[in-house]
Fold each of these.
Amino acid sequence: MASTPGPARAPHAFRVIDTGLRPGRAQIAFDQAMIDLHKAHAIADTIRFLRFPPTVLIGRHQALSREVRVAWCRANGIGIVRRITGGGAIWFDEGQLGWSLVFDRATLPLPSLAELARAICEAAAAGLRRLGVDAHYRPRNDIEVDGRKLSGTGGFFDGDTLFYQGTVLVDMDAQRMLAALNVPEAKLARRNLDTAAQRVVTLKELLGTAPPLDEIRTALVAGFTAELGISATPGAITEREEALARHYHDEEIGTDAFVASIDEPGDSGDAGATGAQVRSATRTGPGGTITAWVRVEGPRLAQLREVLLTGDFFVAPPRTVLDLEAALRGTPTAEVRATVQRFFAAAKPGLLSVAPEDFAEAIAAAVGSAAAPAAATAVPGTPS
């Protein structure tokens, strides 16, 4: 006798909030507050919208001075912010709409960060198509129209909580973006572009006018609910979120020290009194760019004294990179590849396109070369 099917399972319920227009560092501090409160089961799964004044945001692992024209930004009142997610440097202003999702891994039981990125990006693209544009997901983390980026995305796991975010280019001041970011010619040449502005497209350009923000938010929520099988209801920002965000802003994320915490080390050009020498190399692949800075020491410069890894890659959790740098200290240069492989095999982090071999190759190349080629910088749309 056939069993009677049980009642259909109700879709996972998401709260929808909007933190509006806030300084960039305050918005990123709110990201961290949401993540930690979600991990503590103090807030529900959430869709959040946000906006920024003119700001450059660099990825969690990027070297500040390589990505940003710092002096120009300071002279022109442009905010400089370090995200808690990986990816490339981006320009953000009032002409863009940010969105983010924080939810439990069990809500979308997909096995990897890459597959979750695809599902979320395809849902966002479906939402944007409701506005009348032919938006589609492009691996690894972009949403494009006719090959031009309309939205960039990125995220990571923290325990059982997934944080994923993106942007929508509604309108953009391309000249200020180009003045604020260092976009290397090599990156543009790979796409046969003269400027970074050619790589991106806005809703205003596509539609002839910028849609109202409420219309864009409604379209995105519709895409997320239809494609991800969730429900979404307007909710309220909690005082615990605001209080914890203020704490993270004042103690870490809002400080100049955090923004400048990763930068290019100096290169003495010789061994110096300590017998150590700085070397660097860059590896660029489909998963992003990794620049390895190594300080080697010893009579034959055959031991790693310290390693700094920068770039626009995604690794979850972000502290994985710090742990890898620590694991490599004191490693004989001949054992770099084996040490990297052992580390990733034990740590089992979430990787979006990059592989352990990419890190191993960048470090090995740095050990064997004193050259320091320029790394790539992402153009707007990636809080990649």
Amino acid sequence: MYNERLDKRAFDELRKIEAEVGVVPNANGSARFKIGNTEAIAAVYGPQEVKPKHFEKSDRGVIMCKYDMIPFSVSDRIKPGFDRRDMEISEVITNALSRAIFLEEFPKSMITINVYITQADAGTRCASLTAASMACADAGLPMRDLIASVAAGKIGDSIVLDLTKEEEDLHEEGATDVPIGFLPSKNEVVLLQLDGKVSREDLKKIIAIGKVGADKIYQIEKEALKRRFSNESKS
């Protein structure tokens, strides 16, 4: 049984969130998104010429995304370099953003997105996707909507929102983690992965609680962008 969360949060409660845009001066768009002790910084460059050329598409733009965990982002220092997990999360971000950005408006062009995890305590792919979405909006790219992403899951018999690393590691309780990404105004899921086992009915409950959390993150994203452009108009 898992009757009380380790950090005393309610089962449907998000960790503390910080969000801001315009954090990388030389990028076309950038953002920082922090949820609990997980922090992602995203920088967007382009649209620009496609390199290498064989990735070019005549009818639409392409996204080149690189996800990278800084070696000091976790307590056990990680080995520098681009590993299989980094490649997988880079692809996850690319696929989700490809459904949010109007890439058909940028034929034969490339949008480069670099995402860096400076602190990690679970939910890094969700924080990265949210930061990258905000950075794309900050860059002025035409989008169907912002993406709001959060992990939900099940520990023991309880459905929970926004798991920590400590909760993910509760194997005796049967922890299951489900990263989810939404286009809220379109009510569209652009990311859904499953780490563990759950029934169909429980998965529906997990997605539902994830959507509630994502809607809250969506409002925080919009407020961050409003602050950015409000400050620009005053200066």
Amino acid sequence: MVLIEERQGLVTVLRMNRPDVLNALNGELMEALTTRLTALDGDPEVRVVVLTGHDRAFAAGADIAELVGNTPVTIQELPMLAYWERIRQFSKPLIAAVSGWALGGGMELMMACDMVIAGDTARFGQPEVKIGIMPGAGGTQRLTKTVGKARAMELVVTGKTIKADEALQMGLVNRVVPQELVESAALELAQTVAAMPPLAVRFAKEAVLMALDTPLEVGLSHERRLFSLLFSTADQKEGMTAFLEKRPANFHGR
């Protein structure tokens, strides 16, 4: 079983499970991951997903054995591009809990998540250049938008790895915790988010991600539209009423 699923209230944990190859992202694992994310996106009983690996690795990269014999034509025909798009379209908060290696495709997968809790053992990098290629699943784009051109360029063209504290300074992760606390910290964050009104959380995620890809004027217009739409929800009425009545709100995602 390449993917293990655990449910904890309104939070689902997806654990990548190819420990013998440090969770290298092959077709089987990516298919399992995206299939489950698609299903969880439509499950009203799930509000947040935590994605993790194991102590030695979140994911140490793509499975090179699947890539080595490809041509420019066959590489375009691989379903990998569709898998990455399905991850990008996941509408609920996706939190990465990272221990050990997050390299190449593993780092790209981490950056495709919305928030990242890293253990102090975590190591990050885009080492593709060392085997004659470059990042191909968003590594050059998301990394540059997150850390800026100069830092992204150095990571991509040297293939160097960085430690968790440097990743924190660059803004790649939300926080660094002792390795043994990674999953509990990620679950604590997930439960906090899961307690919020789910429609407001979804719209807020959509607006934040749009800020990465659009001019300010476009983003502001989209933000205002989503803000206005939330006034049609029962959760908005409940949230504001509860605030005025000085009681806890009870959100239902409607």
Amino acid sequence: MLPKGSPRSLHQAHAAGADILPIASPLEALQIAQASPHREVVFFAAGFETTIAPVASLLVEGIPENLSILLSGRLTWPAVSLLLSGEAPGFNALVAPGHVATVMGPEEWSFIVEQHHIPAAVAGFTTESLLAATYSVIRQYLDNRLFLDNCYPELVRPGGNPSARAHLNQALNVVDANWRGIGIIPNSGYALNRDYVHSDARKRFPDYDVPERMRAGMMPPGCDCSEVVLGRKYPNQCRLYGEACTPRSPIGPCMVSDEGACRIWWSGGIRNRKMSLPD
């Protein structure tokens, strides 16, 4: 375990004086490493297929020796498959993420209809696309006519992005991965393959994986984020929501991230556990 009072997040480490820079593109990590060739630069690359594809391209094109990648990449569909294959998922249709389908192709979501027999549609982030996908799955459900509907055709095409997929396949392996609060999901993560192992921060800095400094997959005491992620609880049913856990003092990942369910509910005006649930 880390000594009491040690930084336990990048934000805390930065406040304590660590050299940590937020960046918006893998190319920025490359530029930082090139500008400081005598310093070790570690790029913490986290995300799903859409954000990991540019990281794979960076590796394929070549990076300097002083730049290493700390990869925390995940595939989206295995987590959805886990939800649908377990207990009653609690929903009757699914709108699949268009940004993932842009890279991987809409076919990756066909299992929703073929194996689980529920309506599905791929949507982008525009109002029009989201409304079209919502209308599609409702109409499919009412008509009992199920199919995978592509409601983001301007970017989502059969087969996805061939170059992005080729770079993912060239630089990375698909591996079992630990999802915080859920556990190991088979074939749901990315790891650098042996041709690029020299750029793997976990190999270059082996102390990173010392078990004593990690609580991999564990939720903070009292945090129900894993239950929220799995659709078993509303955010304001968490024991900490709006009391110990707020955006100013987030405890679990659902409140830390702007895309987390708890943060979204908070931003929508539901501020404590005593407020009624939405209809």
